[in-house]
């Protein structure tokens, strides 16, 4: 049991927070709305994972880099953190791209 994978995910999440704060993209721009969208995204993918687990499609593989902590059968802690990272990354990228497009249109 190690914290390697969880640490990498949290490091990536920290980088997303720093980008968000620096450029005021997601939470720094509209915190309540961002929290709602992030929660809906995580809930959707968590439901997707749970359905896949229930159908026997998704299974947890043993490895040397995960904590081994399970939130539910076949659902490791790292999966929840990954889903939060994935949804937050999507919000940051989407908002950043919109901002770049708007800046390009302003310049002509």
Written as H for each helix and E for each strand, in order along the chain, the element string is: HHEEH
Overall morphology? elongated
User: Roughly how many Å apart are the termini?
Assistant: 55 Å
Number of strands: 2
**Fraction in helix:** over 70%
Q: Enumerate the strands of the largest sheet in spatial order, edge to edge or round the barrel.
A: 1-2
Mean pLDDT: 94
Indicate the radius of gyration in whole angstroms: 17 Å
Beta-strand content? under 5%
Low-confidence stretches: none
- Provide the domain count: 1
Largest sheet: 2 strands, antiparallel
Structural class: mainly alpha
How many helices? The count is 3
Structural overview:
β1 (70-72) and β2 form a beta hairpin. The protein has three helices and two strands. It has a two-stranded antiparallel ribbon with strand order 1-2. It has one domain. The chain starts with a helix and ends with a helix. The protein has 108 residues and is mostly helical. It is elongated and about 55 Å long.
């Amino acid at each position: 049991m190690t914290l390697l994978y969880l640490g990498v995910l949290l490091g990536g999440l920290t980088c997303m927070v720093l980008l968000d704060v620096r450029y005021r993209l997601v939470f720094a721009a509209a915190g309540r709305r961002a929290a709602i969208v992030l929660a809906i995204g995580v809930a959707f993918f968590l439901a997707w994972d749970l359905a896949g687990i229930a159908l026997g499609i998704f299974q947890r593989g043993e490895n040397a880099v995960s904590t081994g902590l399970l939130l539910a059968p076949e659902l490791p802690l790292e999966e929840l953190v990954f889903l939060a990272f994935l949804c937050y990354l999507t919000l940051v990228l989407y908002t950043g791209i919109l901002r770049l497009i708007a800046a390009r249109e302003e310049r002509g």
